[in-house]
Amino acid sequence: xxEVNRHLQEKLKDPYFKELYELxxxxxxxxxxxxDYRIKNKLSQAxxxxxAGITQQHISKIENGEFSSISTLEKxxxxxxxxxKFEVVxxxxxxxxxxxxxxxxxxxxxxx
Length: 112
Hints:
112 residues, 434 Repressor (Amino-terminal Domain), mainly alpha
């Protein structure tokens, strides 16, 4: 486990990886609320979906961290007593440049 933690700490030095990792952590926190609610209330995915007015497939996708529909995610969260709050946060210039140079290596990002 120490090797994994050491590797993760090394990877987190990369701003692009760090941003993606933090996004996954936020998604996991949302998923935990939904799964906890289901377990505490002894509900299957299908039962929760029916009560929230969405499909079982949507609950399954949400529980797997696939948030392709924000409105569907919002319906599930509203039913269990939560909501989604979005916030756009600017990156530092250095972080933006590092991410863009990695994601778009052939484009000059200094002019953006």
